[in-house]
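Page 47, continued from p. 46.
Same chain as before, 114 aa.
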Amino acid sequence: MPERTFSRDMGMNTAEREENPNIEGSKYIYENYQQAKLSTHPNILFNVRYNAYNDDIEVQGANNTSYALNKYGGTIIVTMLTGENYINSKYVDDKENIKTGFFEVLNTSGDFFY
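Result:
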């Protein structure tokens, strides 16, 4: 996976990455931004898309800039108006490294996601 760099713009991280010519298809689940609510700002609709290649939720900013949500700073629940829900969580990869990523919520029960 190519190195990912971040720059700060108005207090938010902008994800910048070289395109990998060896990858076919789109890195996005949906190429276009979809409206969603974020648990951190539940009364505001945001234009977001899930970047599966980078494992980032990107928020559309001014001038079509994409900002990556900080998945390391606490729990974020992303509720897409199309019905999908994403949540950030820690997990252990196949090399026993602790990572943090976004997961699609497949089922809910009361106040719990699993």
